[in-house]
């Protein structure tokens, strides 16, 4: 049971990260200008992706007999923090918004790396789920970076 508790703790951390990511991308979608329909669509899709990740992780926590997390991270409020950093920029231009999103994606990658390198005895199916979600989030990171870089070149 102690091993399950360690695994549940790791999964709950990832649920919170995905809840933060959902909140961050929901806010990013709201902050996009009407002309930035492409970004709004991407941000809404990424929020949906995190909702799905949280559902999958919640299912694993339940299967292990744990109580799934429902909140967000307490250490820094990662995704809300990166959106607040964005607000320090003048206006809500594409580059600033994308740079803030990339910062959040970096934080998500670190959280998933921490989960995979933890001492918790992750069952094979749980490890595979985490690896799969991390890969999906890496693709999201790379897309955000690509958009940010394209915007930088266009300036």
What can you see in these coordinates?
The chain has five helices and no strands. The protein is mainly α. It is elongated, with a radius of gyration of 16 Å. The protein starts with a helix and ends with a helix.
What's the gyration radius in Å? 16 Å
SSE string, helices as H and strands as E: HHHHH
User: Pairing-aware structural class of the strands and helices?
Assistant: mainly alpha
- Strand elements, count: 0
Largest sheet: none
Rounded mean pLDDT is: 84
How far apart, in Å, are the first and last alpha carbons?
Answer: 56 Å
How helix-rich are the residues, as a percent range? Answer: over 70%
The gross shape turns out to be elongated
Low-confidence stretches: none
Instruction: Specify the oligomeric state.
Output: single chain
Percent strand equals: under 5%
Keywords:
0% strand; 79% helix; mainly alpha
Secondary structure topology:
Elements: H1 2-31, H2 37-63, H3 78-87, H4 94-117, H5 124-154
Helix pairs in contact: 1-2, 1-3, 1-4, 2-5, 3-4, 4-5
